[in-house]
Amino acid sequence: MRLIFETKRNFSTFLAARLIFVTVLLGLAVIFRPTGQSAAPYIVLLTANVLLSLGCWEWFRRRQLSAALRWVVLTGAVFLDTLALRYTGGAESEFVFLYFFSIGSAGLLTGLAGSLWTAILASAGLVWLFAQESPGYLQQHGFPALFYAVNFVLTALLTSYVYARFRERERSHVRTLGELEQMRLDTQTILDSLNTGVLVLDSGRRVLYSNPAGRQILGFPGDASAADVHELLGTGSPLGEAVGEFLEEQTGETRREIEFSVDGKPRPIGFTSSPLLDVAGERRGSIILFSDLTRVKEAERADRERDRLAAIGMLSRDLAHAIRNPLATVRGSVEMIEQSDLNLGNAGAYLNLALRESDRLNNLLRDFLTFAHVQAPNRTPGDLAATIRHSLAESSMSEAVRDELPEHLDAIFDSDQIGLAIHAILLSLAEWSEGKGEIQIGCNPVKPSSVRFLLTKKELAADICEAVFRPFSGVQRLPNAFALPTALRAVHAHGGELTLHTEPGTGTWFELAL
């Protein structure tokens, strides 16, 4: 199939074969030449054949194959064939097959034009050989010469036909290979661009393919090798055990969820496995699709937290109303006693304490009601950056603050509710800083629509991060225990997200997305 298009290599093979055949032929002619005949003509022919073959081979090696040079080589080959026959028996030599060899090679290498040209030259050479044997060669050898010429032409036509068929088949083959290669590249590009991990395993757990997203989900760099992934599939690891179950499962699609440790942090991963079949329909491995469920789990926790806060809010509203009325009665009674003409003596101090505590409890109930009944936001177009800077100015913070916000940050929000939420965020970061670190406020480089409030050089424990948005969690010393829970409900009322993150080497930050 490569006979046609790899012409350079095929011509080298043709020249090597010529060199061998003619060398053997002339060597035999020298050995069995008539007694007393000089060996010089044979040596000259052998030298010319070697020079033709090696010279053309060197030309092909150093430069591109020239179409004109091919014709020169074919013509020279017939000329040398004719001279070789001249000294090995003439036109009736048993080595006339050299002509057929040259014609067939020309047909397979250059097609119809080259093979017919070689056949014409071979016929002319054979007529010349007959003419050298007798002056009346036309009367004596006309028919044999015509017979050879017809056979030369038929050989040229046959080999050129084979050349055409081979060339068409080769073109079809190359076209098919190109289409298959394009399909492979397209499939590779599609798989590499997926955000879902893809892992293809054979029955022996050997990794046949893994895409960059899958390697990153498993904690490897995107350009990690298959050997790294294979090492992770050891039988002692949770991932290896899950993969082993997939390979042993004889049914169709299988789903699993496992918790996998990446960089010392748990990472939930969901797996879906399908059988990998061979051409006979027998199972030869598994195709495993998997994805990082961290965000899904966080969204589920956020939904549960939102529902829990809503339930607490409803309960708090009812409870606050139930407490507020008796509290007002108690306070009024204490005030009437204090304003009476009774000689209270040392009891006056206790009455003042009762009034202060009732005021504190009343403020707590007010905050309770604010948390329990967040009004629907009055959303209007505004500048979120200006609102943040206004809250920053009102908070009078002593901590170092770096403002990395753009000049304007357009958004649609309730400035009062979001202003209170930002105020609660700033007070929380100031409390946690303890006079250390710096507060940096800027847009998230990955999500420009989100604002990040980062406290550097400060890390929080995981239980604190989970508890800050719960009322009365005890993790903050703020006078208003409902500040962050109310801020979360206000952001949720805007359809946004407020999350808290901490990371070694980076610090602790709130992420506000409206």
Salient structural properties:
59% helix, five-stranded antiparallel β-sheet, 514 residues, disordered N terminus
Quick recap:
This protein has 15 helices and twelve strands. By secondary structure, the protein is of the alpha+beta class.
The share of residues in helices is: 55-70%
Estimate the strand proportion. Answer: 15-25%
Give the structural class.
Answer: alpha+beta
> In angstroms, what is the radius of gyration?
47 Å
Strand order in the sheet with the most strands: 2-1-5-4-3
Question: In angstroms, what separates the terminal alpha carbons?
Answer: 65 Å
Tally of helical segments: 15
Structure notes:
- The protein is of the alpha+beta class.
- The chain is built from 15 helices and twelve strands.
- Helix 1 packs antiparallel against helix 2, helix 2 packs antiparallel against helix 3 and helix 4 packs parallel to helix 6.
- The N terminus is likely disordered.
Protein topology:
Elements: H1 7-31, H2 40-62, H3 67-86, H4 97-110, H5 112-133, H6 137-193, E1 197-202, E2 207-210, H7 212-217, H8 226-232, H9 238-248, E3 254-262, E4 265-277, E5 283-292, H10 294-339, H11 347-372, E6 380-383, H12 384-395, E7 401-403, E8 410-413, H13 415-433, E9 439-443, E10 450-455, H14 462-467, H15 483-493, E11 497-503, E12 507-513
Parallel strand pairs: 7-9
Antiparallel strand pairs: 1-2, 1-5, 3-4, 4-5, 6-8, 9-10, 10-12, 11-12
Helix pairs in contact: 1-2, 2-3, 3-4, 3-5, 4-5, 4-6, 5-6, 10-11, 11-15, 12-13, 13-15
